[in-house]
Design goal:
single chain; 5-stranded parallel β-sheet; 2 domains; Aldehyde Dehydrogenase, Chain A, domain 1
């Protein structure tokens, strides 16, 4: 199903850098024409940060961090609760800006802001509970104190597909731990992050505690190379992560990462197949058009249930409405850019010609009234070789593979046969199997009979090449704290 995309919008879009609580055009900054993916037309010209603006932001952040750390701990806690309230009041506005960012459908966009609010509120409650500890020292009567302290200024590099999600996962715990943050959203999705930075000032955070600097790859390198950063958190792809790690190594700046995924969704014959079909569709090619690190792009179905599952799965995909992201009934929007669209279509073409699997549905650019936008049909390949590029490469688009399996041991071998380990999904009504199988999966998060639903209480992060850091829980707070040991001789 399809519906036409809007060609115009009336929302005011922030277009400059936010440094020290002020909007800054900058002297070394460059301009970038932001393209709205649903129409292929420009909707704003934004300022991108250059080296001078990054240096200004680091200086501003360091000053604000000292002010932040000097506040009574109860005051810091209350300001963060005020920030959560302010984000809540702006859920609709931030959701609309997320649509302008990368054309995420309206039914999804508010959830990004709601997630950010929940993390800010959760970590606000940790501000006055981040206790250190003491321990005895062998053979001594010394007092041994173990404290957790902030790093100072944190560089948070956000991916284009979820700047408000990164606000929750990374910015919130960094602030709660006592740090300042330089948030670098992609030039492809700057608007919601810039408005969030403005909300931080309105909520009472010291100006400069959260500076927001949209930039491209060159600006990202300048940020990572800055010696004034205490730590860097990068969310994105493995190739860029290697560049970040190499650049940061010059200053020995520590780096935490949340990288890609090629997640397995294992559907056993005893699963609720109606639910499994809906979950596989939403967590696969439909949700954000597959542009998610949590995308369950490798679907494994037990032989006994294969035909029945595929019938229901393809029916769910066929019923999904494609179209205008501002239409609340639309489930599938465009991919983020023309280069991304061409890359994904190239992957599909190579898979067809390379006989990596059977193209069962989709595989084409959506035309007609959508010909100016970057829409791709939800695409399914069946009988896919698990070691083919189709099954091993993160596509980051509405493309999934479906493969049969016989027994539990074969399913486990297929699921773990990947360089990635961010998420895994299991559909079964057998509780002992669910426990046994989840423990054997090489994945940082396992979701049983449900979709991915990141919450502030649970640490989220990857195994293998899916990253090194954790977001959520006490573990997420500790990512932004460094340990100090003090010994007092008595």
């Amino acid at each position: 199903m399809t519906t036409a995309a809007k060609t115009e919008n009336t929302d005011a879009l922030p277009t400059e850098l936010l440094i020290g609580g002020d909007w800054v055009a900058g002297s070394s900054a460059i301009e970038h024409e932001h393209i709205y993916p649903a129409t292929g037309r420009p909707n704003a010209t934004i300022t991108l940060a250059g080296p001078e603006e990054i240096d200004h932001a680091v200086t501003s952040g360091a000053e604000a961090q000292r002010e932040w750390a000097s506040l009574p701990i109860g005051r810091r806690r209350d300001i963060m609760f005020d920030l959560a309230d302010a984000v809540h009041e702006n859920i609709d506005a931030l959701g609309r800006l997320s649509i302008h960012d990368f054309a995420v459908p309206m039914r999804t966009a508010p959830g990004h802001t709601m997630l950010a609010e929940s993390f800010i509120r959760y970590y606000a409650g940790h501000v006055d509970k981040a206790h250190g500890q003491t321990s005895e020292v062998s053979g001594k009567h010394d007092l041994n104190i173990i404290d957790r302290e902030p790093y100072g200024v944190i560089g948070v590099i956000a991916p284009w597909n979820g700047p408000m999600v990164v606000v929750g996962l990374n910015v919130a715990p960094a602030l709660a731990a006592g740090n300042a943050v330089i948030l670098k959203p992609s030039e492809l999705s700057p608007f919601s992050a810039l408005r969030f930075g403005e909300i931080c000032v309105e909520a009472g955070l010291p100006p400069g505690l959260v500076n927001v600097l949209p930039s491209d790859a060159e600006g990202g390198r300048s940020l990572v190379a800055h010696p004034g950063l205490g730590k860097i958190h990068f969310t994105g792809g493995g190739a860029t992560a290697r560049q970040v790690l190499t650049t940061a190594a010059a200053n020995l700046t520590p780096v935490a990462t949340e990288l890609g995924g090629k997640s397995a969704n294992i559907i056993f014959a005893d699963a609720d197949l109606d639910q499994a079909a809906i979950l596989a569709a939403w967590q696969g090619p439909l949700g954000q058009s597959g542009q998610s690190c949590a995308c369950a792009s490798r679907i494994f179905v037990q032989n006994e249930a294969y035909d029945e599952f595929m019938q229901r799965f393809l029916a769910v995909l066929a019923a999904a409405k494609i179209g205008d992201p501002f239409d609340p009934d639309v489930m599938v929007g465009p991919v983020v850019s023309e280069p991304a669209m061409n890359r994904i279509l190239g992957v599909i073409d190579q898979a067809v010609h390379g006989r990596h699997g059977t193209l069962t549905t989709g595989g084409r650019r959506v035309g007609g009234e959508f010909s100016d936008g970057y829409y791709i049909e939800p695409t399914v390949f069946t009988d896919v070789d698990n070691r083919s590029p189709l099954a091993t490469t993160e596509i980051f688009g509405p493309v999934v593979s479906v493969t049969r399996f016989g027994d539990e041991s074969e399913a486990l071998a297929l699921a773990n046969d990947s360089d990635y380990g961010l998420n895994a999904y299991v559909q079964t009504m057998n509780l002992p199997r669910a426990h046994r199988f989840s423990r054997a999966l090489q994945s940082g998060s396992v979701w049983i009979n449900r979709n991915s639903d990141i919450s502030p209480q649970g640490p989220y992060g990857g195994f293998k090449k899916s990253g090194t850091g954790r977001a959520g829980g006490v573990e997420g707070l500790q990512e932004f704290q460094q340990i100090k040991n003090t010994r007092i001789g008595l």
